[in-house]
Amino acid sequence: MPTPVSDISPDSAEFQAQFHQRWNHLNDPHVRALAWLLDAPDLLDAQAPQWQGKIATYADRNLAAWLASLESEPEQLQQLHNYIGSLPSARLGLYAEKLMAFYFQQRQLLVAHSVQVRASKNDTIGEFDFLLRLNGELVHWEFATKFYLLETSDDSRQAEDFLGPNLADSLGAKMQKILHRQLALSQHPAAQPHLEQGIASAQALVKGWLFYQNDHLALPAVLGVSANACRGYWCGLSTVPLDDAATYVLLTRQRWLAPAKIPLEQSFSAMQVRQILLQHFSADESPVMLATLRPQDGYGLETCRGFVVPDDWGQRAAEQRRVAAAKSS
């Protein structure tokens, strides 16, 4: 019998509890998402040798005061909403990057954002996510917000074993691209006209959530992954561990970042969630993010989250890993 997600070990929900303790006074969804991006644990272990010292970390001692001011000042909050409203698409990565660009701009750290580098009109070499001025130096940061599920058909525990919910990529492949292509962009001759001075360092700031099968919520040792990374569970549709005494919300993509805080009247019972999931997967194979809530002052606060996937997701993920391993061998 699967463990109901309301009964999962408190360790698995530790980050959500800490987030609510620190940021529950924030109500605007964009401000809460920004709080998560700036305060969440890094996804990767910056000291792990395979990242070659190229993982950025960032902390703002005045973050709490700045976020409180942002939400309480109508004009400043409207600036944020207008900035996000100019997004050309609803892609989650673009949304997160735009939030960070607003923050860096407001904190007077931003030199440039989304700078395309072309060798010619029809030959794009790459793009700088962020050029920042930190401690008087020009630095290049690539930024990624990723959600990966650990496929556990064997004893391997590598970054390549974490796959995107739609099986479109892996953590290992993403990091290889960042390390060996994107962070080398400033060395290309075509990039030099965009740089007012030499790049002091090129690093990747990586945030996200990692998801484990129910019996793997006690975080396994995975080479290169931070032990403090935000995490949840994943399970197939037929084994969703719902608790009839709990309430839930299905998170839309732009609400995947910060732990959920919603009015209780917008939550669903376990029975309602079962019907919603059955209806969804009868027409669509895309995974669904499900958050378990606890009531507080008229709101539902997220205690844990998980991806519900098609029942054959694990088999397809294992096959994709085998194919990728064969290509790289």
Description of the molecule:
This protein has 329 residues and is of the alpha+beta class. The protein has a domain at 5-232. 30% of the residues lie in helices and 27% in strands. The chain has 8 helices and 11 strands. The protein has helices spanning 14-23, 29-39, 63-72, 74-85, 92-106, 171-180, 270-283, 313-328; strands at 110-120, 123-134, 137-150, 162-163, 201-213, 230-236, 247-251, 261-263, 268-269, 288-296, 299-309. Strands 1, 2, 3, 4, 5, 6, 7, 8, 9, 10 and 11 form an 11-stranded mixed sheet that branches. A hairpin with a 2-residue loop joins strand 2 (123-134) and strand 3 (137-150). 37% of the residues are buried.
Short description:
The chain is an alpha+beta fold. It has a domain of 228 residues. The two termini are 39 Å apart.
Keyword list:
329 residues, disordered N terminus, globular, 11-stranded mixed sheet, DUF1853, DUF1853 family protein, alpha+beta
